[in-house]
Specification:
- By secondary structure, the protein is of the alpha+beta class.
- 19% of the residues lie in helices and 32% in strands.
- It has helices spanning 41-49, 53-62, 104-107, 139-152, 184-192, 197-200, 204-209, 213-216, 264-271, 276-287, 432-436; strands at residues 2-5, 29-35, 67-75, 78-85, 92-103, 108-120, 123-131, 168-174, 251-257, 290-299, 311-319, 328-333, 336-337, 342-348, 359-364, 375-378, 383-386, 391-395, 405-413, 418-422, 426-429.
- The strands form four sheets. A six-stranded mixed sheet has the order 3-4-2-1-11-10, with helices on one face. Strands 13, 15, 16, 19, 20 and 21 form a six-stranded mixed sheet that branches.
C-alpha cells in the first residue's frame, strides 16, 4: 500500500522504490492512494476522458508484470487505484467505488474520502483514502470528518452496505494530524537523533485514540520513520520558509479487522441483540478466518517532488478462501484469425447473477485494466448454441485484429462489476488475407506492431 500527497506534481521518472519493484517477493495486490493530484480545469477535463498521468504511469509499469487495474476512483485531487495479479482477478467480485466530499460545506471535493470495496475470495475488504482538514488547531474537525465519511458512505451491496460492515478496512491518506505541544527545536532534535518515540505521545491521532471509540477500532504500526511533512521541494530539508511549519506524521495507514464473535458464555445474551445478517457474519468469520499483519511501515525519503514524503505499508493477509473456483470457465474454439468468424465456449461453474449486460472481452496478454480490451461481444446477443453445460458465443471476424498476437478471453459480469472468468492465453493468428492484399507486412506478429493501413482495423 502507498499513500502520498503529491502536491500537484507530475509523476517521477522512476517508481521502482515506491512500488518495491526490486523486492524478492512480489505482492499480490497494490493499493495506491494519492492526494492533491493536479486537477486544474484543462487537466481535469482531459483526465475525465483519458487516464491521468499517475494512473498511466502505474498501469504502464505494472501491466508488464502481470498486474491489472481492477478498480479506481477519483474525486478532484483524491485518487485511489487498486491493482491485482491476474491470477486473483476472477476472485475479486462485487466491486464498488464511491466518494464523500467534506471540503467547504460538503460541496467542494478538495477534502473528503474515496473508497473501493470488493470481495476477495469471499472476504469483504474496503480501502478508504482520505484527505482531511489541514492546520494544527483542527484535530477534532478531522475526527468529525472521518466519522462523517464512515457514517454516511454506503455501497450498493447487500453483504456490506457500510464501511464498518466489511471484514477488513484500510484507512489511509493525508490525515493531517500534527504533533502538538512540543516546540520546534525539540521536535527537530528528536528527528535528527531518530528518537521518534519521544514524539508519539503528542501525535494528535494517537492522543485522540484515547477519547474516540471509532478510532480505537483501528490499528497502526509504530511510527518508526521520520515525519513525512513538511519538506522544501527537491530536498530532504524541513520547511525553511517564513512559516516554518512543524514536522508531522500527516500521512498514515491504519486498518480495522471487524470485531470477532463474543466469547461463548456471552453469545446467548448477545444473540438476542444481533440481527440475522450479523449472525451470519459471525458464523462466517469463525468458519473462514482472516488474519492481517503488517510487515513494513515506512516512508520513502528518496522522493522530493512534493512537500510530503510517500508512506508505504506492506501487509500479509492469511485467509481461508470462501470461493475456490471461478464462476465461469471459458476458452476459444479452434483457430482464431481475422479471416474467419470465431467461437468462444464458456461454462458457468456455479450459479451467479448473469444478465443481458454481461460480455466477453478479447484482451492482449499484459492488458492494463478491464477497459483495455481489443473487442468484446455481448453474451446474450451473440449466443448461438446452448445446453446445460457449455454455451457458444459468436465473434465476427471483423472484430478480430488482423495482426494477431497472444490473447486471453475474459467474462465480465455486469452485476458483480468484475471479471469472473479468464481463459488460458492463446494465439490469434495473423490474417493471411491481409498479408496477400498488402495490408500487413509478412511475418509480423504481436498486437503492438504497426499495421500497414489503418483501414485494416475496420
Amino acid at each position: 500500500m502507498v499513500t502520498w500527497n503529491v502536491a500537484t506534481a507530475d509523476p517521477p521518472d522512476d517508481v521502482t522504490l515506491l512500488l518495491h519493484l526490486n523486492s524478492p517477493k512480489s505482492p499480490d495486490l497494490y493499493v495506491i492512494g494519492l492526494q492533491e493530484v493536479y486537477s486544474g480545469p484543462m487537466r481535469f477535463m482531459s483526465d475525465t476522458l483519458f487516464e491521468d498521468p499517475w494512473s498511466q504511469l502505474f498501469m504502464s509499469i505494472l501491466a508488464p508484470r502481470n498486474y491489472v487495474k481492477v478498480s479506481s476512483i477519483r474525486m478532484q485531487g483524491l485518487l485511489l487505484l487498486f491493482f491485482s495479479k491476474l491470477e486473483h482477478v476472477p476472485f475479486i467480485r462485487d466491486i464498488h467505488a464511491t466518494y464523500t466530499r467534506t471540503g467547504i460545506f460538503g460541496y467542494w471535493g478538495n477534502k473528503g474520502g474515496v473508497s473501493v470495496r470488493l470481495s476477495f475470495y469471499g472476504h469483504t475488504l474496503c480501502f478508504l483514502n482520505c484527505h482531511l482538514a489541514a492546520h494544527m488547531k483542527y484535530a477534532t474537525e478531522r475526527v468529525d470528518e472521518f466519522e462523517y465519511i464512515m457514517g454516511t458512505q454506503t455501497f450498493e451491496c447487500k453483504k456490506a452496505q457500510r464501511i464498518v460492515d466489511h471484514r477488513l478496512v484500510f484507512w489511509f491518506g493525508d490525515l493531517n494530524f500534527r504533533i502538538q505541544d512540543h516546540g520546534m527545536h525539540f521536535v527537530r532534535t528528536c528527528i535528527n537523533n531518530q528518537n521518534y518515540n519521544l514524539l508519539w505521545s503528542k501525535d494528535q491521532l494517537t492522543m485522540l485514540k484515547n477519547k474516540e471509540e471509532m478510532l480505537q477500532e483501528f490499528e497502526e504500526g509504530p511510527l518508526d520513520f521520520q515525519p513525512t511533512y513538511k519538506f522544501d521541494l527537491k530536498s530532504d530539508t524541513y520547511d525553511s520558509s517564513g512559516k516554518k511549519r512543524k514536522p508531522a506524521w500527516t500521512d498514515r495507514i491504519l486498518w480495522r479487522l471487524r470485531p470477532a464473535a463474543p466469547p461463548p458464555e456471552e453469545q446467548d445474551e448477545s444473540a438476542d441483540r444481533l440481527d440475522a445478517r450479523e449472525l451470519r457474519q459471525l458464523e462466517e468469520d469463525m468458519e473462514y478466518p482472516l488474519k492481517v499483519s503488517q510487515e513494513l511501515y515506512t516512508s520513502q525519503m528518496e522522493y522530493s517532488i512534493s512537500d510530503h514524503k510517500p508512506v508505504i505499508g506492506v501487509f500479509t493477509l492469511v485467509l481461508r478462501k470462501i470461493h475456490t473456483t471461478p464462476l465461469v470457465r471459458l476458452q476459444p474454439e479452434g483457430d482464431w484469425s481475422a479471416d474467419i468468424d470465431s467461437m468462444v465456449l464458456y461454462s458457468p461453474l456455479q450459479p451467479f447473477p448473469s444478465s443481458t449486460w454481461d460480455w466477453i472481452g478479447l484482451y492482449k496478454v499484459g492488458f492494463t485494466s478491464v477497459s483495455d480490451y481489443i473487442t468484446y461481444t455481448w453474451v446474450k446477443d451473440d449466443e448461438v448454441a446452448f445446453n446445460e453445460e457449455v454455451i457458444q458465443v459468436y465473434v465476427g471476424k471483423e472484430e478480430i485484429p488482423v495482426e494477431g498476437g497472444e490473447c486471453v478471453l475474459c467474462y465480465y459480469c455486469s452485476t458483480l462489476q468484475s471479471i469472473v472468468g479468464i481463459s488460458e492465453p492463446f494465439k490469434v493468428h495473423e490474417s493471411k488475407v491481409a498479408i496477400e492484399e498488402g495490408l500487413l507486412p509478412e511475418r509480423i506478429n504481436g498486437l503492438d506492431k504497426a499495421v500497414g493501413s489503418e483501414d485494416a482495423w475496420n
